[in-house]
Amino acid sequence: MAYETLLLDRDGYVATVTMNRPERRNAVTPQMFAELESVFRELSADDSCRVVILTGAGGAFCSGLDLSALGGGGVPTPASFRDRMRDVNACIRAIADFPKPTIAAVEGIAAGGGCNLALICDIVVASDDARFAELFVRRGLTVDMGGTWALTRRVGLHRAKELAFTGDTVSAQEAERIGLVNRVVPKAAVLKESAELASRIAANAPVAVRMAKHGLNRASESGLEESLDLEAHAQAICSSTQDVVEGVTAFLEKREPKFQGR
Q: CA 187 to CA 106: how far, in whole Å?
């Protein structure tokens, strides 16, 4: 499928989705929300894709919602905003429910909804010039695009409240210190670092990686017994694959395994 606001590149098992509106610092429009939902649905069903990198063009990740795209020059009514949020939430669900690992490669600004597009991914690699801000309250709005869910899980309830209530901008270094991002690298290396990380993940058994993601996502909302049951179920699925035979054989033969995802 052709996309107007996105670029889709493939390198082996890794797909890179680039938000491509650099003249607006990749601010999100209704069309981009629809295209993000579509590309993640497409890649979810593609067995040749094992990891997705989400990034932005032109030295910025995403500056949030493109307010100029709201239409009519005025503020939407509550009813129209609810309609818009249904489309926004469909996009966020497509990324959050994506069964394979996702990596946000963040350069420059990640603000408002752009910040939460990064946080909804499994791993965040930030350039040393990256900046993060939950600036909704500074626009008279409240946190959306999964921010209340993702922010709390990354930095804890009380620090999430501070970021949400103030709308303060956080540097890459501070974001790493508080656990908002996984790692900070030089600006010139952020895509290379993300691609290398994606390749290491993609080299592992795809079914096992998907089961690990599912179990970890569920763990924060379940007790020990439920987690143990889920692990047992996941392990049974993994043990029925050819990849587990390949993994054991490669170990015994002292070579790197070649997993096929089945």
A: 9
- 251: tokens are 């170990």
End-to-end CA distance of the chain: 26
Which string of b and e fits 60-77 if b means at least 16 CB within 10 Å? bbbbbbbeeebeeeeeee
Closest to 197 in 3D by CA, of 126, 149, 120:
126
Tens of pLDDT, residue by residue over 13-30, are 999 999 999 999 999 999
3-state helix, strand, coil in the chain (%, to 5): 50, 15, 30
Gap between the Cα atoms of 148 and 143, Å rounded:
6
Average pLDDT over residues 229-241: 90
Q: How far is CA 102 from the centre of its chain?
A: 5
The answer to whether 201 and 209 are in contact (CB under 8 A) is yes
Tell me the Ramachandran region of residue 73: left when phi exceeds 0, alpha when psi lies from -120 to 50, beta otherwise: left
In terms of C-beta density within 10 A (0-12 exposed, 13-18 middle, 19 or more buried), how is residue 207 classed? buried
Give Cα 168 to chain centroid, integer Å: 22
Q: Dihedral of CA 78/81/83/88: which sign?
A: negative
User: What's the full length of the chain, in residues?
Assistant: 262
Write down the pTM of the prediction: 0.93
Write out the H or E segment, with its range, that includes residue 167.
none
